Amino acid sequence: MNEENIRGKLLLPYIxxxxxxxxxIFLEHAFKIRLGKKKYARGRSDILCKRHNKxxxxxxxxxxxxxxxxxxxxxxxxxxxxxxxxxxxxxxSNGIITKIFDSIxxxxxxxxxxxxxxxxxxxxxxxxxxxxxxxxxxxxNFISLSxxxxxxxxxxxxxxxxxxxxxxxxxxxxxxxKKLYIQRExxxxxxENFISSNESIFGLVGAAGVGKTNAICSLTLQKLDDSFVFxxxxxxxxxxxxxxxxxxxxxxxxxxxxxxxxxxLDELGRYANKCVLIFIDAIDECTNQNxxxxxxxxxxxxxxxxxxxxxxxxxxxxxxTILKIKNKPTYLHEELCKYHTTISSLENxxxxxxxxxxxxxxxxxxxxxxxxxxxxxxSNSLLNELRNGFFLKIFSEVYHEKEVPEKxxxxxxxxxxxxxxxxxxxxxxxxxxxxxxxxxKIILNYKxxxxxxxxxxxxxxxxxxxxxxxxxxxxxxxxxxxxxxxxKSNNEDSYNVSFYYSKIRDYIICFHSYKLDKLSDEEFYxxxxxxxxxxxxxxxxxxxxxxxxxxxxxxxxKFKQDKSLEYVISHNSYLDENFKNFKDKxxxxxxxxxxxxxxxxxxxxxxxALFRMAPNxxxxxxxxxFNDFSNSGYDFWWxxxxxxVHGSNTSLLVKDQNRIVKKNIFEQLKKILEKGRLTAYxxxxxxxxxxxxxxxxxxxxxxxxxxxxxxxxxxxxxxYPIDLKDLQHRINRFRLTEFxxxxxxxxxxxxxxxxxALQENVDIPKITGSGDVVPFEELFKATEILLEKGYDQIxxxxxxxxxxxxxxxxxxxxxxxxxxxxxxxxxxxSEVQAKQxxxxxFRHLELAYKDFVExxxxxxxxxxxxxxxxxxxxxxxxxxxxxxxxxxxxxxxxRTGKFExxxxxxxxxxxxxxxxxxxxxxxxxxxxxxxxxxxxHYPVKTVDRLNTTKVDEYxxxxxxxxxxxEDDMEKLFKENDD
Length: 978
Fold this sequence. Notes:
- By secondary structure, the chain is an alpha/beta fold.
- The protein is 45% helix and 13% strand.
C-alpha cells in the first residue's frame, strides 16, 4: 500500500473517528514550515492536526514496504519543531506499524501520551535556550535529510532577500534582469577557482554601472543547485550577521556574536555536506557605520571554518575604506590577499570588474535590443559608448521601440532618461530636477581634501540636508535612490550621498545647477574658477565641453592661457623672494627667468612644463606637442631644461593660485632637503668641515704624502695645518692632469705642459660629471670662499680629536669583538675629551644651523622653532653619569642667554620634564655625533649628485643641521601640503 492509500483509506478515517473536524486537519498542500523570521516553505509531512487552533501533531507516512527508521523519525520531528507553534507529538506510520514520538525529547510514547510529555503538560512552552536548541537541530535535519528541502530553503531565502533587485525590464527598481545577463567569462573562471580553493573570502569590485550587482546575483542563482546559499543586499540591511540569524530562525545569544553565528552555519554546512556561500552585495551602500568592523570580524572567523565562504561586492572608490580602519588593513584585507592579487589601480586585493569587452558587447547588445525593441543598426562609435552596463540600460530605456541614432549625445540621452524616470515619481520632473540641481551645486562647492577626492564617496547626508535647507522631517526623496539616480554609501557616522552615474551628475551641474549654456562669454569666464576647485567641477566641465558653443570654447582657451601666465609669474617671483640662493635646485633648474610650456590644443590636451627662458626673452608662454617629450623631440625639451612634464594643468586654474604655487614649491623643497642638495656657503663651520673631510679621504689624489693610520675613526690631525692657497694649486694640478691624460702626451711632456699652465695661470677646465667623481670642484669653491673671508691657513680641526691611541683602541676591541664593535670609535676618546667633543659639537652645530637657515631660508627663519630659540641649554642623562656609555639628551632655550651643556646621571632624568622643562628626550651615544650611520635618508650627500660615501658619513655637523631642520620644517611642509 502506498502513502496515498494509507492516508486516504486508513489514517484520515481514523483521525475523524477520534473527533477531529475537517477544519482541524491540514494536508500537504496547505502545510507550511517557518524557515526564517518571515519565511515559509512547504513541508513534506502528510498531515498536520490542530486542536483549538494550536498545532497538536504531525503525521509522516511511509510505504508499507518500507521500515520506519531513525531518519524518518528525525525528518518528521524536524517538521514539528519548525512550525510557528511546535507540534508536541510526531507520528510515523507505514500502515502496518505506527509510532508516536515526543517532538521535544524524541522519545517513543505509548499509552496515555499526554501524561508522558512534559512539553504538553507545560502548556507547550519552552525556555528560550531550549527552544533555540531544538529549532536549530530541526533545521539541521530539515536541510540535510532532503536535498529538495535545502534547495527550497535557499530559493526562499534568496528570493526574499533579492527583493526588488531582481525583476523585469518594466520594473524601474530592478538591477538584475536574468534574461539580459551574459556570463562574464574572466569572472566566472576566477570565481569557480575560488570555490574549489581553500580560501574563504572573494571580493568583487568595480566602478558604478559596470554590473557588479548583476554579476553577484547571477553567481548566487547559479549556486542554488549545489550549495547552501544566502544572499544579502547590504543597501537595505544593517548587519549581515543579524540577518543570517533571522533567516535561520535562531538567535544564538542575547546579542548576535560573530563566531557563534558563523560556526553554527559552518556546522549546518558540514551536516548537509554542502558549501555555505554567503553573497553580500553593495557593501559600499550599507548605512551601518560598523560594517567595516563587522566584515573584518566575519573574515577573521571564516578563515578557520570548513564550509563557509563569503562573497562581497563593492564600488572600487569605496574599497579601501572597507578594507582599512584608521588606514590599517583589516582581517578582511588579510583574507582577500590569500586568494586575490593586488589591483594596481586600487592598491588593494580583489577581482576588478570592468566595462564590457568587445566580445561581451556583441553578446549583450542583441539581448537588450530584443527586450527593448530599439531599432536600427548599432554603429561602431555608438557601440563603444555602450560598454558601461548602466549606460546601456539608460540607452535601452530611452530608445525603447525607437530608431537609434548613429552617435549618442550624452546630454540628450541623459535628459530623456531623467524625464522618463522622474515623470514616474510622485514629485515629478520639475521638482526632481530642482532637488538634483541644488545637490549638484552643493557637491561642486564642497572643499574636498586630497583623500576625499581620491575616494569620491559623495557628501554626508546631514551636510546635504542642512545645505538644502530641508525641515527636520524632510529627507531626500527615496525614489531618487531606488531609480539609481542617487546612491548611498556607508561612512563612519551616517551615510554619504552621491550620484550613481558621474555623467548624470555632470549633466545636472552643467545644465541645471549652473545653466552654463545660457551664460555669456564673460559670465562663463568668471565662473570657470569655480569649476576648477575640485574633481567634480573638472569632470562636469569636461562633459560640458562636448556640448559647448565655439565662443565658449574660445573663452576656455583664453582662461587657461591667462591662468598659466599668472601661475608662472607667481612661481618665479616666489622662488626669487624666498629661495634665491638655491633657485637652480628647483624645476627647471635655473637662476634666471622661468616660462611655461602648454599643449598646442588646450581643449583636447592637458599638461604643462616649466622651462628656462632664453636671455633677453620676454615670451613666458610657449606651445608644443607633448607627445614629443618621450619621442623624437626630446632634445628640444632638454635644451629648455625640461625634465619634468606634469600630466595636468588643471591645478593651475584655481582661483587661489598662491596655495598651488606654495604647494608645488614645497613638494620640491622637501625632496631637495631629503637628498641633501643644499649647502650654506656663509657658514665657516660647514665650509671647514667640508674641506677637512674631503682632503682626508682624497689626500692621495691631491698629491699629499701623509701617512695616515686610523682605526674606524678618522685621525684628522694628520692633515693639519691646511694651506688653502696650496690646496687650490693642488686642485688645479689635478684638473690639468685629468684634462691632459687623454691627449696621448708623453709623460715628461705632459708634466711640462701642466707646470707651464700652472705658471701662466691659464683657464683650467673644471671637473664635470656626476656619480663617482672626485668632489674637488666643491672643495675648490669652499677654499675660495674661505680665502675671501681672510683664512690663509686652517691650523687645527674644528672639533676635539681622539686622544686615545690606536693601539689601545685595538686592544679594547679585541677583548670582545661582538659587543665592543659598537664602541670602536667611542673607545678612542677619554671621558674628559668626549665631554669636550660633545660641548664643541653642539656649540658649532648652533653656529652652523643659524648660518644655514639665514642663507637658505631668510624669509622663513622666524617660523623655525630651533632657530628662533638659539642659544640652547643641553642636558645629557647618561648611564652611570658616563658620557662614553648610552643615555638620552634634550634641550631648552637658554635661560641665561648663553650656550650651556649639562651632564647628569640617567637616574635624574625624571627632572627633565618637571623642573627643567624639556619637551622631549632623544636617545644618545657619543657615536651618534662621531659618524652618521645609514638611517632613512641619512647621511645626506655632501656634494649634490656625487657619490662620496665616507665624506658623507663624517660631515657630522652638516648631517645634524639637516636633522634639526627636518623637525623645524615639518610644520611648514604640513601647512603647504594641501
